[in-house]
Amino acid sequence: PLYIYHSVPNKVLTIVVPLFFTYKKGEYYLRVIPWLLHIKKVYQEAELYTFFPFYVRIVHPAEYYRFVYYFPFYGKETKGASTQKHFMFFPIYARMYDKETGDYSLDILWPIFRYQTSEDKRTFRLLPYWKNTTPRQDFTLLLPVYYSFTKKDQEKGEAFTFTLLFPIFVKRVNEM
Fold this sequence. Notes:
Largest sheet: 19 strands, antiparallel
Number of strands: 19
Radius of gyration: 24 Å
Structural class: mainly beta
Helix content: under 10%
Distance between the termini: 73 Å
Strand content: over 45%
Shape: elongated
């Protein structure tokens, strides 16, 4: 069959093969148009709308979340009133800033370059070098030959540093 329509209380299914498909059950709604690469999905106030891969929009009003992307040119993600991410020709450029917490990140030619800072974390990556620092751990990596990791766990009463210089040196030092 080329056309199917089925309706029962609180459910509706419509199919026009191969052009169109819809399904509705309560507050759940799904529409797919395969030849346009189009999908619309609505559930519990959240909505996904796309003409993949050129346009994607996700909105969730209850969580104050919105994501819009015009591939490959520009995208914006908003969480609440304070957090915003901007994408331009991603993965060439991405930037995030949270006004409330001061969290900031910048990606250029992701994953090659990343700079991230927050109240309790610092990350710098320019591959092959990668440095990540938090109050509980310190991590340094120089691919593929050097790896250093420090972990502090006050609850367990342990702290140690692990260092590897491949293939000639390995060292673990317990600090507590």
